[in-house]
Amino acid sequence: MVVDVREALQTVPRSRPTWLLTWMPRAAVASLVANILIVVTGGVVRLTGSGLGCPTWPRCTGASFVPHRAMGVHSAIEFSNRMLTFAVAAVAVATFVLAWRYRRSAVLRLALLLALGVPAQAVIGGVAVLTDLNPWVVSLHLLVSLAMVGLAVALVRRVGEGDGPPRPLVPAGVVRLTRAVFAVAWAVLYVGTVVTGTGPHAGDAHAPRNGLDPRALSQLHADLVFLLLGLSVAVVLVVHASGAPALARRAATALLLVELAQGLVGFVQYATDLPVVLVAFHLLGAALVSAAVTWLVLSVRERPGHPVGAAADARLPV
Prior knowledge:
Blueprint: H1 5-11, H2 18-47, H3 73-102, H4 105-130, H5 135-159, E1 167-168, H6 172-196, H7 214-241, H8 246-271, H9 276-299, E2 301-302
Helix pairs in contact: 2-3, 2-5, 2-9, 3-4, 4-5, 5-6, 5-9, 6-7, 6-9, 7-8, 8-9
């Protein structure tokens, strides 16, 4: 589906009803929650060995879209995760419809990307099943989900700010530092998915592994995490020293706290041979890192002005 944003903005009403000002921010937050949730539930599928509970795609079996009782609990878990995709799609579609009525091109573009990401993720997940959970495809599946979490954060932020050109709230050096944190954070997330491809939680007992050295990759992952922590501490210090607004200070502190919690979970799970519960929390932490680092980058600049027709109480509290 191709959307001409300018045409859309010309065809919708010029005024925004009060209910739209109320529900557009809520829909943006719902999109964020839904995309974090799908990361966790997808992890549960893999951690319970249910990745091939439905051995084909888009059907669950060659003859049916739904599993039958004889297929066991793994098929039920896998099928339930597939059904949850429809719930995420419903949230994405509702958000897009509201964004269409909201009549702001940047909000509409982000909502469209989130809506298109749902079928794209379904296809990638299908390819993962059809390739017997190829670890590189599974890695891509998770990375796209984490990227969608970041997009949802951008939507939340965009709904609550004006339409003017972005201008920094901190010195240029601090802006560059936050961008470096963003880049390193994504390096950590990527290497983390590759490490997962070497480990025991493949999603199925017979699923292939990527054949790389788990110790060497885990060490690389840890090195990147220490680099990220160091840069994040530096950001916290400089945003406080530079007199940055409270939003930027809170975003930097929140990211550091999420990283510390995530690092602790990662260390404990590695030392205890990757128990399922801790790995699930680590996946949740990865989604929160994606959200927090995106919020940080977006919090060191602002777009002046209020959205046309938006009331002050329609903006998200920060």
